[in-house]
Amino acid sequence: MRERTLTPTSYLVLGLVEQLGPCTSYDMKKLARSSIGMFWSFPHSQLYAEPARLLADGLLAEEREDGGRRRRLFRLTPDGARALADWRATPTEEIGEVRDEGLLKLFFSDTTDVEAIRTLAANQGKWHRERMNYLIELRAAYRGNATPAQLAVLELGLRWDRAAVDFWNELEVDPTSANRS
Amino acid sequence: MRERTLTPTSYLVLGLVEQLGPCTSYDMKKLARSSIGMFWSFPHSQLYAEPARLLADGLLAEEREDGGRRRRLFRLTPDGARALADWRATPTEEIGEVRDEGLLKLFFSDTTDVEAIRTLAANQGKWHRERMNYLIELRAAYRGNATPAQLAVLELGLRWDRAAVDFWNELEVDPTSANRS
DNA sequence: GTACGCATGTAAACGGTTACATGATTTG
DNA sequence: CAAATCATGTAACCGTTTACATGCGTAC
Q1: Residue A49 CA distance to nucleotide D8 C1' (Å)
Q2: Spatial distance between the Cα atoms of A126 and A133, rounded to a whole number of angstroms
Q3: Which candidate in A100, A105, A161, B168 could, as Cys together with B121 as Cys, close a disulfide (CB 3.0–4.6 Å)?
Q4: Are A82 and A56 in contact (CB under 8 A)?
Q5: Segment holding A75, helix H or strand E
Q6: Mean pLDDT across the stretch A68-94?
Q7: What is the per-residue pLDDT across B62-74, written as a single tens digit (0 to 9) for each?
Q8: What's chain A's average pLDDT?
């Protein structure tokens, strides 16, 4: 077992299981949605598919509940814990990327159609404002029971959204400017 | 033809072809790398696979060079131009996401291992500083022959990298702080 | 003229998304 | 107790990635 190269999704699952202790896919889903979801989203089916692979790799172990729903509980194996530790100790040689369809549209926008750019900007700004508010609530709710590192990640999310709000707002005001900072 | 739902990659290719006029996959690659690559990266093989699909969809047309290498030149069909225009006119109902493995590592980092966080932060900061410098060069080179919208996208890239540089730097100085802004 | 890097392309395998499906809880 | 929503899971399709392959220019 364990011939394949693990993907970020693999470590995401391993990390979630480590934090939660024995847990179901649904537990992972809940935690992911209220924390790293913003940086690494995925449909919930991944949280069934990936644990199955990790099981085959010997990095997770599974036990089924006896009673009622006989849900599957996953937990880290020693190998799994080691894989996670190795990953943490390895410097990341890649830089992240911002995948934003709104920016794609802006990039390919028709320069002469000022109104379209304005509409796009207004719309994108709205989404970022909404998420910013959500993250602020989240931060208030988490203060205390999250690690400093997790709060830091949240904080960068907030800064990103604030930068985006400013950016789209400036563009809405003056769609032809290059927004020099 | 044209039953499938187009993906962002589809519009990326359509947009590139529109900007370039008749062009090869390699031309697209060059343009993409020096512009939107930072927001939407992909291996070059996508620039062969996707045009093939768009061809089947009737959104691109192809002609082969007569001489020498007989390269494939793609150009927009009227249907392709229309698809692009429709996309531009449709508001984006999704918000972009930041996929950054470094942030994943931070999120799952061992809070007690301050040194590991410091190393991660130093490393991530370095990447963002490097790309920031690259983007600054790019901006200087582009001033004049890029559209305002394209310069704006570049500008947001710069702001993002600057925010990331600050963030990782603060974290390197004080790995236990939550970096409140 | 040979070596190296740029340019061009293809194929297979795998991960991720979409869609479907249904048993359990809660709410009114 | 009916309806809605939460919780849990599977399967197929398709896009993306990885890997391989090789022709063409250019510099030395």
Answers
A1: 13
A2: 11
A3: B168
A4: no
A5: strand A72-76
A6: 89
A7: 988 665 567 889 9
A8: 91
